[in-house]
Automatic annotation (TrEMBL):
Residues 48-83 are annotated as: Disordered. This is C2H2-type domain-containing protein. It comes from Apatococcus fuscideae. InterPro entries: Glyco_hydro_beta-prop_sf (IPR023296). It comes from the Eukaryota.
Length: 763
């Protein structure tokens, strides 16, 4: 392989809780006990993997389990950032001297869209930079290339990219840009070029075409290439000539109907500036079902394992698309000895989106990157969430063996007792735990999670509840709810979680209170046992369900659980009142449990009831409690008492009480779901996380009149954050798990400063 071929892949050398019942790690934990986020499934041959961060040298691939990677590695920015509206494709290179990957990607902002700076519906905008040491956890560095303000420039209406090359010691980035004719009006889409020494500071190359472009579409819109050029890639051949790749779209008749098909074209040049079109690339093998609708987004690199070149491309499948396009997007791979005549490597995609994953709508706009370990990595654009995902080759040189999904790393190599706070940017625009892969016990819905740190094992353990499509199809658990089984996951850092499977299942006996599915929101260590109160639904028959009651399970190790036979119907601890018109309605939800210094047990729960507010009947949520001297026979005491008036944040009520001993003072803390005054159907409000404190566990004071944590616009949890639970880490900082909407995953946050209960950041 030539010196050039090596550098085009590797990158150049230049550039370079103080209280009665202590937390488990504040006392002797039960031997072997523990409490527990995420992986992905092999997709054909490339596997997205959640943990490539090495435990030592960065050059060693650290492949992890891959059953639950359900989020992109890069997504839209927080509100007000340059990439808070739409995100396009990304391309990356390893910089050996800096020991870092650099990724360039294109995106636009809500502000620019509102201002009609760029075309609506597209991701074109500015080029931004991000860096990573492991290809998984990326830190955004900001904008490095912006469109020209001069309307005569080919890129005045926005930029995009799909490939990058190292040529003569420079970084060459072909771009596609659209001209802006006036505010909100746009013209032709052409190709241009920018160059850089370090990948940070860029110079736009003045091309010979209109507006400084290097290639434009034909004036005849009826030609094969239509009226726009997209997603360019570039290589320099051994003889010094250049090939510029691009794709275009055109209506053709197939199956008796006119549909839009995508084709890859190329142009050649002796100087890298003046290009002559060569037409569509040539294929040596016939079209496959995977790209029956065409090919787009050519990302061409020198083949690191042989002569010639490799091309990752978007394959549009035979599946008929609703918008006039053929098919679902997946990633194809091809090889060529001369860069012009190409052969598909197999007739199946090397990578595709998966049902139940964030990218279930498709995976396209691929880009290849060679890592320092000699393994190729893949970036791709996932749909429908339109974030950037990653995958890695399983075996060097095996072009059909790629790890399924990269995901957030385990952050290994650092002590788990140290806070692993993620940068509050797009690296955290995803849950820490999502639904399982198809066929898993949690592949349909997951509910809340609760976690604790176990010092003897140096690990966090999380329990969460969820259900499967198979179970709901059979009528075993109710549709539209997350009630089902209780699952276990483990993590050393509260960020990267590994699922361990179901640990508690509903009773098959229909007379049991939990025969129709169960859920949780609280956990406690009492008398060297782990106590977990549950809320569960009785099943009357397949697909028909009855009352929702509270129960209890206990464990010595957090893995093997025994159900406590309560005095209520079906073995329950507590059931709703017989009077459905009482304050608590006809169902009990989300229990929490503590033991007071005098030995009294307090069981918290919430319920819902229609109440008159604003002159209308609305559903209001209320937290209630019950007490017991033995932890088994409970007496209801009514709603908890508040010392301060209702705030806007919980005007619609409070739910999901998660009560823990206060690690910084006497008494207790309660995280709860605060339903604000924003009206949503028959319920009050967007869900946020409120925090309250109490000396006796009965009378509570809100800590401030604002949520301590809320979902954010543009983030995965923009629909709301609720069902919170608290966990004290070994560093003395409280951590928070919450259920995010609309994607309904489990998110995490951490207190910024020990004892400061009002200032939190997402993980």
């Amino acid at each position: 392989m030539s010196h050039l071929s090596t550098h085009i892949l590797h990158g150049p050398a230049p550039v370079s809780y103080g209280q009665a019942i202590p937390w488990p790690h504040q006392r002797q934990a039960p031997q072997g006990c523990g409490w527990l986020r995420c992986r992905g499934e092999a997709c054909n041959e490339f596997r997205p993997d959640h943990s490539l961060r090495s435990h030592g040298h960065r050059n060693k691939l650290q492949a992890s389990n891959t059953d639950n990677v359900n989020r992109p590695i890069l997504n839209r920015g927080s509100p007000g950032s340059e990439d808070d509206a739409k995100l396009g494709a990304g391309v990356a290179v390893w910089f050996a001297e800096d020991e870092v990957y650099r990724m360039w990607y294109y995106a636009n902002s809500q502000a620019s869209n509102d201002n009609a700076d760029y075309p609506k519906g597209l991701s074109m905008g500015k080029i931004l930079l991000a860096e990573s040491t492991d290809f998984v956890s990326w830190k955004k560095k900001g904008v490095v290339i912006s469109p020209e303000a001069d309307l005569s420039s080919f890129d005045s209406g926005g930029l995009g990219l799909a490939s990058i090359a190292f040529i003569s010691g420079d970084v060459w980035m072909p771009v596609f840009g659209i001209e802006k004719q006036a505010q909100g009006k746009f013209g032709k889409q052409r190709l241009g070029l920018v160059r850089s020494k370090d990948g940070v500071k860029w110079t736009k190359v003045k091309g010979p075409g209109p507006g400084g472009s290097i290639l434009e579409p034909s004036p005849d819109v009826d030609t094969w290439e239509g009226s726009a050029l997209f997603c360019p890639g570039m290589v320099q051949r051994p003889d010094g000539s250049y090939i510029l790749y691009y794709h275009t779209s055109k209506q053709h008749e197939r199956d008796g109907i006119k549909r839009v098909f995508w084709m890859i074209g190329y142009a050649t040049s002796d100087d890298g500036l003046h290009f002559k079109k060569g037409g569509p690339i040539t294929w040596t093998n016939s079209v496959a079902d995977m790209d029956y609708g065409g090919q787009s987004g050519p990302a061409v690199i020198p083949n690191p394992y042989g002569e010639g070149y490799l091309m990752a491309y978007t394959a549009l499948g035979k599946e008929y698309g609703p918008t006039g396009f053929f098919g679902r997007w997946s990633t194809g791979l091809a090889r060529s000895s001369d860069g012009i005549t190409w052969s598909r490597i197999g007739d199946q995609p090397i990578f595709e989106g998966q049902q139940g994953k964030w990218d279930e709508g498709g995976a396209g706009h691929p880009a290849l990157c060679l890592g320092p370990d000699g393994l190729l990595r893949l970036l791709y654009h996932g749909f429908p969430n339109k974030g950037i995902g990653a995958a890695s080759m399983r075996e060097k040189g095996n072009l059909k063996s790629i790890h399924s999904r990269h995901n957030h790393p385990r952050r290994s190599g650092r002590s788990a007792t140290t806070l692993q706070a993620a940068t509050v940017d797009q690296a955290v625009n995803r849950p820490v735990l999502g639904r399982g892969s198809p066929g898993a016990g949690d592949d349909l819905k997951i509910g809340a999670g609760v976690a604790m740190w176990f010092p003897q094992e140096n690990i966090y353990k999380m329990w969460f509840y969820g259900n499967s499509k198979a179970a709901t199809d059979k009528g075993e658990v109710p549709k539209f709810l997350s009630l089902g089984q209780i699952f276990l996951a483990e993590s050393p850092d509260f960020v990267a979680w590994e699922k361990k499977g179901a640990v508690i299942s509903p009773d098959s006996d229909l007379s049991s209170y939990d025969s129709g599915g169960m859920g949780l929101t609280g956990i406690a260590f009492i008398d060297e046992d782990i106590w977990m109160p549950l809320f569960a639904l009785e099943k009357l028959e397949e697909g028909k369900f009855g009352k929702q009651r509270l129960g209890l399970v206990r464990s010595q190790d957090g893995v093997n659980w025994r159900k406590v036979q309560g005095p209520g119907p079906g073995g329950s601890l507590l059931e709703p009142g017989q009077d459905a018109d009482s304050w608590e309605g006809n169902a009990l939800f989300c229990p929490g449990l503590v033991r007071l210094p005098d030995g009294t047990f307090v069981l918290y729960y919430h319920t819902s009831k229609q109440s008159k507010r604003d002159g209308k009947d609305r559903v209001i949520w209320t937290i209630g409690y019950a007490t017991s001297q033995d932890g088994l026979h409970f007496t209801k005491c009514g709603p908890i008492t508040w010392t301060n008036p209702v705030a806007k944040m919980d005007y619609g009520g409070q739910s999901g009480p998660a009560v823990v001993p206060n690690p910084y003072d006497e008494g207790f803390l309660m995280a709860y779901t605060a339903l604000d005054e924003e009206l949503m159907g028959a319920f009050y409000g967007k869900w946020n996380v409120g925090l309250a404190e109490s000396k006796d566990g009965i009378t509570w004071s809100r800590i401030g009149d604002q949520p301590i944590f809320a979902g954010q616009a543009g983030m995965w949890d923009e629909g709301g954050a609720g069902h919170p639970t608290l966990c004290l880490g070994p560093d003395g900082l409280l951590r928070l798990l919450y259920h995010g909407f609309p994607n309904k995953g489990i998110g995490a946050a951490v207190m910024k400063e020990k004892g400061n209960l009002s200032d939190w950041q997402r993980l």
